[in-house]
Amino acid sequence: MVIELFFNMLLGLIITWILMSLTAMNLQEWLASRFRWRARMLEKTLRKMLGSSVLVDQFYNHPLIRSLFTGKDSTDKPSYIAASQFSQALMDILATTGTEASLWQEQLYRLSAEIEILPKSERAALQGRLALLMGMVRKALVLETGEQEIASLLDNVKADLLELQAEYPHLREAIEEMFDTVNKQKKEVNEALTKLVYQTEDSPSPLLNQIRAGILALSITHPQLKQVLHALLFTVSQSVWNKQDELSHIRANLEEWFENTMARLTGWYKRRVLVSTFLISFLLSLLFNVDSIHIAFRLWNQPELTQAILEQVNHFFPGLEIADDPLSLLFASQEIGHFTFPIGWIAGLGASEFSSSLTNIPAEQCTLTPFEEGQIYGLWVFNRCYPLINTPPLTNTAAWISKFLGILITAFASSQGASFWFDVLKKIINVRFSGLNPTEQRTSLG
Length: 446
Prior knowledge:
This protein is mainly alpha-helical. It has two domains: 2-31 and 275-445, no CATH class; 37-267, no CATH class. 71% of the residues lie in helices and 3% in strands. The chain has helices spanning 2-34, 37-50, 53-60, 63-66, 83-96, 100-115, 120-142, 147-167, 172-199, 206-221, 226-237, 246-288, 292-301, 303-316, 326-336, 352-357, 397-414, 418-434, 438-445; strands at residues 366-367, 376-381, 384-387. It starts with a helix and ends with a helix.
């Protein structure tokens, strides 16, 4: 008899936790989608990898990555990027890094950050003109018709910047610094490339030579990447035994770097989901007064309640193979929705007859401290008394501590996931009703 009561109580608790888990998971997924947690965390990780907001902006504006944008007007950044796409986009950036066009592109990104802090009316006009300049620089980066046309585009960019300097005096200092920085970096890059020509042997692949020069230039324009890029360059130099594989080595190194970082990001995201699911479960348990300790006592002491749940479990689940898929979880959650559990804070919200009868109770008899005979433990709201249920008196401190622990237990159990409790439920049902099937017996014995 005691064992049967224990099984019945456990079944009721597990079904409660499944229902809470399904609700918490749906809310967590909605929040993750609504606030784009995955995309934001991916962008934050890329900023740590590349060490520069400018490089990250260049990366996201690469056509290969821009094609992954979603949402209205394709403004939502991607939540996932393949390692091959990362390596290809970064290799393209490296191949053009160090050219005058890339130096101007970087400075325009910096100027864009300066414009963001300006008043809204002034900012809108400047952003439009800056977008045109960015378009000309991007065209210069991919142009293959000759140096003369590239130089002509960059001259137009410089002329427009000088016009902005004249029209907006508060941008004068920033634009002057842009010209000084580009001239200085251009000189340093040229000197470094001259040394590279004497120190290394050219590769048969023009793209590989451009990437080598880009890595060297990037270490000048972004010193914070020096250690990572030096390691990458050193690895490439060791592949001289097979020069035809140098490009493959670069791509493989970049993909391995990205995949290792994404593995850490996955662990970071899972920890965030676990914490958020627990917090959501705790808030739901608190809001609906889902106290596992109270439910366990009610199921143990009221055989009629446990028997009703048991009959429903026996009816719905014996022939049901609950798999970890959306359709199965949906069907099971719909069935669980028919069950009745001792939860909630206030009575009289659903039964209209009961609710109407509460209007006849005087306000002085509806109180949170019912010490006198005839008083009701409840809340007086809008000329109606709402009795508090599944709740100890305010003066019973020990019972409130037990309730808080019961809500914590519900939150922790719910955060384990519905699929986990479905598996536990199937095992308990097998033991309770029919025992293990022959296949499971052989598996457990073998």
